[in-house]
Amino acid sequence: MEPMISICCTAYNHEKYVGEAIESFLMQKTSYPFEILVHDDASTDNTANIINKYEKDFPELIKPIYQTENQYSKNNHVGYFFNTLRAKGKYMAICEGDDYWTDPLKLQKQVEYLEANPQCSLCTHAARRISRDKKVVGYIKPGTHDQNFTTVDVIRHGGGGLFATNSMVYPRRLVQNMPDFYHHSPVGDFPLMLYLSLQGEMHYMAQCMSDYRVSTESSWTSRLNADKNNVGEHIRRIGIVLDEFNEYTGRRYEEEIRKCILNREFTWLLSIFAIEKIKLEKYRENYESLSIKQKMRLYLGAYLPSVLEFSAKIRKIRKA
Q1: How many CB atoms lie within 10 A of CB 226?
Q2: pLDDT in tens, the chain (320 residues)
Q3: CA dist., res. 289 & res. 15, Å (int)
Q4: Is the pTM of this model over 0.90?
Q5: Which DSSP symbol is given to 151?
Q6: Cα–Cα distance between 119 and 113 in angstroms, integer?
Q7: Residue range 5-213 in CATH 3.90.550.10
Q8: Which of 193, 144, 187, 188 is nearest to 169 (CA)?
Q9: Cα–Cα distances in Å, from 161 out to 29, 42, 59, 154?
Q10: DSSP 3-state helix, strand, coil percentages of the chain (rounded to 5)?
Q11: Cα dist. 92→3, 4, 18, 223, 268 in Å?
Q12: Quick one: 201 exposed, middle or buried, by C-beta within 10 A (0-12, 13-18, 19+)?
């Protein structure tokens, strides 16, 4: 029997977490069959061995790919090329190897909604942000009640942050031929949300049904933030993706996209205290929206970085 749902998991150096992710897939109680597609991107730790153990225990359910060369470093969308294109389910659910689901009925609830609402192109839900030691540090919860969101909402949130990646379930038929702006993106979730938002309704369930880990050692975000130059390059590339999306939609969302690009650039410049660039006319509105405290921090970082560093150490000592 063909699966109704394809669970797609990408993993890289997730030996501390991937077992918990797979266990959260296996605990799902559904009236539909599902498959678990796991892609290990040439991990250098014990991740592949852990996945292999589960494969041996559940050979009909778990279908892994073990890379010998890291595909992400070749700018390949590993989730798309190695999971999406081999999926057989009517619907697809995403969860990366360092995240996990917390509700055993998560998939059942989302698939039931999608089946009852064929106009829905993406079903999501609330999620908790947790630290690597599983302390709750926040929520990805754009609403307090079930509701629909739009393309404009995705753009205004700048992509990541509106919905947790591990909350997304959507029809597979919609993602068989993705546009260029998706393939040119350095990340997969943001352009996927943008594209699916054009295909129908995006429905959000206010229930927390997954945990999204932040700042894990091998996470994409940690690797990106290891070098501030990486962040600047990433923002530049996302700006290009947004420009391509703008053209793809016939400039339907041009003003929202312009503001999104400016906001991302300004946030980056603020983080590196690039005061001369921040004062350019195009960032005037962003600069004027800063509080006095934020402006003081900006000036200290730009002209007296040692003072700012000393005050940060004092705050750290007080918190200890």
Answers
A1: 10
A2: 899 999 999 999 999 999 999 999 999 999 999 999 999 999 999 999 999 999 999 999 999 999 999 988 887 778 888 999 999 999 999 999 999 999 999 999 999 999 999 999 999 999 999 998 889 999 999 999 999 999 999 999 875 679 999 999 999 999 999 999 999 888 889 999 999 999 999 999 999 999 999 876 654 454 544 466 678 888 888 999 999 999 999 999 999 999 999 999 999 999 999 999 999 999 999 999 999 999 999 999 999 998 888 777 777 777 65
A3: 43
A4: no
A5: H
A6: 10
A7: yes
A8: 193
A9: 28, 28, 35, 9
A10: 50, 20, 35
A11: 10, 9, 19, 27, 33
A12: middle
- C-alpha triplet 133, 138, 140: angle, nearest 5°: 115
User: Residue 300 region, left (φ>0) first, then alpha (ψ -120 to 50), else beta?
Assistant: alpha
Tokens 């595909």 sit on residue = 71
Q: Strands (DSSP E) along 111-157, which ranges?
A: 120-130, 136-140, 147-149
Rounded to whole angstroms, how far apart are CA atoms 129 and 144? 16
Tokens of 67: 């890379």
- Residue 78: which residues within 8 A CB-CB, separation 6 or more? 10, 39, 41, 71, 72
Domains of the chain, residue spans? 5-213, 220-319
For residue 46, what are its two tokens?
């014990």
Neighbours of 101 (CB within 10 A): 25
Pick left, alpha or beta for residue 42 (phi over 0 → left; psi -120 to 50 → alpha; otherwise beta). Answer: left
